[in-house]
Amino acid sequence: MNGPQGISQPRFRNIGKPFSSKVLFSGVVMAQQDNERFSSVPDVDIEECEGRYKYILIKVYDANVTDADVYKYIVRGFRAAGFHADIYDNVLPVVEKNGLECECVGGGRIDHSPKNKTLKAYGYSQGFGRADHSITSDLLKKKYPDYSITWSNEGY
After folding, report:
1. Other CB atoms within 10 Å distance of the CB of residue 89
2. What is the DSSP letter of 36?
3. Active-site residue, 133 included
4. What does the pLDDT look like over 98-116, one tens digit per residue?
5. How many percent of the chain have pLDDT more than 70?
6. Choosing from 54, 84, 112, 133, which is the catalytic residue?
7. What is the fold, at CATH topology level, of the domain defined by 13-151?
Protein backbone atom coordinates (compact mmCIF):
# COMPACT_ATOMS: atom_id res chain seq x y z
CA MET A 1 0.00 0.00 0.00
CA ASN A 2 1.44 3.35 -0.98
CA GLY A 3 0.92 6.60 0.92
CA PRO A 4 1.71 10.18 -0.06
CA GLN A 5 4.46 10.56 -2.64
CA GLY A 6 4.61 6.78 -3.19
CA ILE A 7 5.98 6.05 0.31
CA SER A 8 5.11 2.57 1.47
CA GLN A 9 2.77 2.59 4.47
CA PRO A 10 2.48 -0.25 7.01
CA ARG A 11 -0.51 -2.55 6.79
CA PHE A 12 -2.62 -3.06 9.88
CA ARG A 13 -4.62 -6.27 9.74
CA ASN A 14 -6.87 -5.52 12.72
CA ILE A 15 -8.20 -2.07 11.72
CA GLY A 16 -11.95 -1.99 12.23
CA LYS A 17 -11.98 -5.18 14.31
CA PRO A 18 -13.06 -5.06 17.97
CA PHE A 19 -10.22 -4.77 20.45
CA SER A 20 -9.50 -7.86 22.53
CA SER A 21 -6.97 -8.47 25.25
CA LYS A 22 -3.82 -9.88 23.69
CA VAL A 23 -0.86 -11.61 25.30
CA LEU A 24 2.47 -12.79 24.00
CA PHE A 25 2.62 -16.60 24.00
CA SER A 26 5.39 -18.76 22.56
CA GLY A 27 6.47 -15.99 20.21
CA VAL A 28 3.06 -15.14 18.77
CA VAL A 29 0.26 -12.79 19.78
CA MET A 30 -3.12 -14.33 20.39
CA ALA A 31 -6.41 -13.58 22.10
CA GLN A 32 -6.71 -14.52 25.78
CA GLN A 33 -9.17 -17.38 25.14
CA ASP A 34 -6.72 -18.92 22.65
CA ASN A 35 -3.95 -18.60 25.21
CA GLU A 36 -5.94 -20.69 27.72
CA ARG A 37 -6.48 -23.53 25.24
CA PHE A 38 -2.86 -23.47 24.09
CA SER A 39 -1.67 -23.40 27.72
CA SER A 40 -3.42 -26.73 28.31
CA VAL A 41 -0.77 -28.31 26.06
CA PRO A 42 2.69 -28.15 27.73
CA ASP A 43 5.52 -26.71 25.64
CA VAL A 44 7.95 -29.50 26.54
CA ASP A 45 7.46 -33.12 27.54
CA ILE A 46 10.65 -35.18 27.35
CA GLU A 47 12.20 -38.03 29.33
CA GLU A 48 13.64 -36.90 32.64
CA CYS A 49 16.20 -39.71 32.70
CA GLU A 50 19.75 -40.02 31.40
CA GLY A 51 20.03 -41.02 27.76
CA ARG A 52 19.62 -40.41 24.06
CA TYR A 53 16.24 -40.64 22.42
CA LYS A 54 14.16 -39.46 19.49
CA TYR A 55 12.18 -36.22 19.66
CA ILE A 56 9.82 -34.26 17.43
CA LEU A 57 8.94 -30.58 17.08
CA ILE A 58 5.21 -30.05 16.59
CA LYS A 59 3.29 -26.97 15.48
CA VAL A 60 -0.03 -26.70 17.37
CA TYR A 61 -2.81 -24.51 15.99
CA ASP A 62 -6.55 -24.00 15.86
CA ALA A 63 -7.87 -24.87 12.41
CA ASN A 64 -10.94 -22.70 13.04
CA VAL A 65 -8.82 -19.55 13.38
CA THR A 66 -7.98 -17.89 10.08
CA ASP A 67 -5.00 -15.97 11.50
CA ALA A 68 -1.93 -18.00 10.54
CA ASP A 69 0.04 -16.27 13.32
CA VAL A 70 -1.90 -18.08 16.07
CA TYR A 71 0.09 -21.20 16.90
CA LYS A 72 2.75 -22.55 19.19
CA TYR A 73 5.52 -25.12 19.00
CA ILE A 74 5.86 -28.03 21.38
CA VAL A 75 8.66 -30.58 21.90
CA ARG A 76 8.06 -34.24 22.68
CA GLY A 77 10.68 -36.95 23.16
CA PHE A 78 10.55 -40.45 24.60
CA ARG A 79 13.05 -43.30 24.91
CA ALA A 80 10.45 -45.97 24.17
CA ALA A 81 9.71 -44.59 20.69
CA GLY A 82 11.04 -46.84 17.97
CA PHE A 83 10.15 -44.25 15.35
CA HIS A 84 9.51 -40.51 15.42
CA ALA A 85 5.97 -41.27 14.19
CA ASP A 86 5.32 -43.24 17.41
CA ILE A 87 5.77 -40.02 19.38
CA TYR A 88 3.41 -38.14 17.08
CA ASP A 89 0.80 -40.90 17.36
CA ASN A 90 0.80 -40.43 21.16
CA VAL A 91 0.66 -36.62 21.04
CA LEU A 92 -2.10 -36.21 18.44
CA PRO A 93 -5.03 -37.38 20.64
CA VAL A 94 -3.90 -35.14 23.52
CA VAL A 95 -3.77 -32.06 21.28
CA GLU A 96 -7.11 -32.88 19.64
CA LYS A 97 -8.72 -33.38 23.08
CA ASN A 98 -7.96 -29.71 23.74
CA GLY A 99 -9.77 -28.64 20.56
CA LEU A 100 -6.55 -27.97 18.64
CA GLU A 101 -4.76 -29.51 15.69
CA CYS A 102 -1.10 -30.15 15.02
CA GLU A 103 1.51 -31.14 12.50
CA CYS A 104 4.99 -32.50 13.00
CA VAL A 105 7.50 -30.08 11.49
CA GLY A 106 10.57 -32.24 12.05
CA GLY A 107 12.48 -34.43 14.40
CA GLY A 108 15.87 -35.40 15.67
CA ARG A 109 17.55 -36.73 18.79
CA ILE A 110 18.06 -35.41 22.29
CA ASP A 111 20.98 -36.26 24.56
CA HIS A 112 19.83 -35.64 28.12
CA SER A 113 22.05 -35.72 31.19
CA PRO A 114 20.15 -34.64 34.31
CA LYS A 115 23.26 -35.35 36.38
CA ASN A 116 25.35 -32.87 34.36
CA LYS A 117 22.33 -30.65 33.59
CA THR A 118 22.90 -30.76 29.85
CA LEU A 119 20.61 -31.19 26.85
CA LYS A 120 21.58 -31.36 23.20
CA ALA A 121 19.16 -31.44 20.25
CA TYR A 122 20.57 -32.65 16.94
CA GLY A 123 20.07 -34.86 13.89
CA TYR A 124 16.92 -35.50 11.90
CA SER A 125 13.95 -37.78 11.41
CA GLN A 126 13.83 -39.93 8.30
CA GLY A 127 10.04 -39.61 8.24
CA PHE A 128 9.55 -35.95 9.24
CA GLY A 129 12.85 -34.35 8.26
CA ARG A 130 15.06 -32.13 10.39
CA ALA A 131 13.45 -30.09 13.17
CA ASP A 132 14.50 -26.49 13.62
CA HIS A 133 16.72 -27.28 16.60
CA SER A 134 17.02 -23.59 17.50
CA ILE A 135 13.28 -23.51 18.25
CA THR A 136 13.61 -26.74 20.21
CA SER A 137 16.53 -25.29 22.16
CA ASP A 138 14.58 -22.13 23.01
CA LEU A 139 11.67 -24.19 24.36
CA LEU A 140 14.00 -26.45 26.36
CA LYS A 141 15.68 -23.38 27.90
CA LYS A 142 12.30 -22.23 29.25
CA LYS A 143 11.67 -25.56 30.99
CA TYR A 144 15.29 -26.15 32.06
CA PRO A 145 16.71 -22.68 32.80
CA ASP A 146 19.58 -24.06 34.89
CA TYR A 147 20.77 -26.47 32.14
CA SER A 148 23.41 -26.01 29.50
CA ILE A 149 21.44 -26.49 26.27
CA THR A 150 22.99 -26.79 22.82
CA TRP A 151 21.91 -27.87 19.36
CA SER A 152 23.52 -28.96 16.11
CA ASN A 153 22.39 -29.97 12.64
CA GLU A 154 25.07 -32.68 12.56
CA GLY A 155 24.44 -36.36 13.13
CA TYR A 156 21.53 -38.69 12.71
Report:
1. 11
2. H
3. no
4. 889 999 999 999 999 999 9
5. 77
6. 84
7. Pyruvoyl-Dependent Histidine Decarboxylase; Chain B (3.50.20)
